[in-house]
Automatic annotation (TrEMBL):
This is Ig-like domain-containing protein. Residues 119-233 are annotated as: Disordered. Residues 1-25 form the signal peptide. It comes from Kutzneria buriramensis. Keywords: Membrane, Signal, Transmembrane, Transmembrane helix. The chain crosses the membrane at residues 276-297. Residues 119-136, 149-182 have a biased composition (Low complexity). It comes from the Bacteria. Residues 137-148 have a biased composition (Pro residues).
Length: 298
C-alpha cells in the first residue's frame, strides 16, 4: 500500500513538471512591424514580419488595397523584411498595413501594423545676388579752344504736381445665411457617410476601409455611441448610424476599428415644427378666450 501511494505521488509530480514545458512550446502569433512608423508621402520604410508558420512569402495591403509582397530569405520561413514606399498621393493620416499568407496546411495567417503619413514642409532658399564688375576704361582728355558764350537768363521750371489718389475699399459684409448643402457623401480620414446632411429621422449609414480584418467597429459622436459593426477579411465595413439626440450643426463621427477613421455630417432642423407649434398655441388662446366671454355674458 505504501509503495502504491509513493508511485501515484511521483506520477503527479511528473505531470506538474511537464505541463509548463508544453506551454513554453507554444508558437508565437504572426506579427508585423514598420520602421520608421511615420514619414511623408513617397518616403521609404521597412516592413518586418515574423511568426507566419511555414510561409515563404507574405502579401501586404495599404488601407485594404494590394501594396507589396515580401519573400523570406533562403532557408528561412515565416519571417523576413521588405522595403516599401508610401504612396506619393497619400494624404496626411494613419493607414493600416496588413500582411496575410496561406501556410502549407492551407490555414490563413494574418498580422498588421500602422504607418502615419506626415505633412511635407517645403523650404524655399533664395540664391545670393550676383554682382558683375565692368572694367573701367580710361577716357581720353581733349582740350577744346576757348569760345565766347553769350549769357542767357535762367528759366526755372516748377516741379510737376503729384496727385495721390487713395482708394478706400469698403468692408464686404459677411452673409449670415448658412452655406448650401449638397447631398453628396463626405469623406474625411477614411470614413464615408452616405449623406452629408440629415433631418431628424432620416436614415444614415457609414462605410470605411483600412481596418484590421475582423475587428469590431464602434461609431461615436460627441462621446456617445451612434453605431456598431465588424470589419470583413479585407478590412472594410458598413454600419447604420443613429443619433440619440438632435443638435443642429456639424458633427464629427469617429470609427474605431483597430485604426481611427473620421467623417462629418450636418444635422439640419427645419422651422416648420416650431411654426406649427406657435400657430396651435394662438388658436388655443382664442378658443379659451371665447369660452370665458360666453360664460360672463350669461
Amino acid at each position: 500500500m505504501r509503495i502504491l501511494v509513493r508511485t501515484v505521488t511521483m506520477a503527479a509530480l511528473c505531470v506538474g513538471v511537464a505541463a509548463p514545458a508544453t506551454a513554453f512550446a507554444a508558437v508565437a502569433p504572426p506579427s508585423v512591424t514598420v520602421a520608421p512608423a511615420s514619414g511623408p508621402a513617397g518616403s521609404d520604410f521597412t516592413i518586418r514580419w515574423g511568426g507566419f508558420a511555414g510561409c515563404g512569402s507574405v502579401a501586404f495591403t495599404w488601407a485594404g488595397a494590394p501594396f507589396v509582397t515580401g519573400t523570406s530569405p533562403a532557408g528561412v520561413t515565416g519571417s523576413g523584411s521588405v522595403v516599401a514606399t508610401a504612396p506619393a498621393d497619400a494624404k496626411p493620416g494613419t493607414y493600416a498595413i496588413a500582411g496575410t499568407c496561406t501556410n502549407p496546411n492551407g490555414a490563413k495567417e494574418s498580422g498588421g501594423s500602422r504607418f502615419t503619413v506626415t505633412v511635407t514642409t517645403t523650404t524655399t532658399t533664395t540664391p545670393p545676388p550676383t554682382t558683375t564688375t565692368v572694367p573701367t576704361q580710361p577716357v581720353p582728355t581733349t582740350t577744346p579752344p576757348p569760345a565766347t558764350i553769350p549769357t542767357r537768363p535762367t528759366t526755372t521750371t516748377p516741379p510737376a504736381s503729384t496727385t495721390t489718389t487713395t482708394t478706400t475699399t469698403a468692408d464686404t459684409p459677411t452673409s449670415s445665411a448658412p452655406p448650401s448643402v449638397t447631398d453628396e457623401p463626405k469623406t474625411n480620414g477614411g470614413l464615408t457617410l452616405d449623406h452629408s446632411s440629415v433631418q431628424p429621422g432620416d436614415p444614415l449609414s457609414a462605410s470605411g476601409t483600412g481596418c484590421e480584418p475582423g475587428h469590431d467597429v464602434t461609431l461615436t459622436s460627441d462621446g456617445e455611441r451612434v453605431g456598431t459593426g465588424r470589419a470583413d477579411s479585407g478590412g472594410a465595413f458598413h454600419a447604420p448610424v443613429e443619433f440619440t439626440k438632435i443638435e443642429p450643426g456639424r458633427h464629427t463621427i469617429t470609427a474605431d476599428c483597430g485604426v481611427v477613421l473620421t467623417g462629418v455630417v450636418d444635422q439640419a432642423v427645419t422651422s416648420s415644427a416650431n411654426d406649427y407649434s406657435s400657430t396651435l398655441l394662438v388658436l388655443v388662446f382664442f378658443v379659451l378666450g371665447g369660452i370665458v366671454f360666453v360664460r360672463f355674458a350669461y
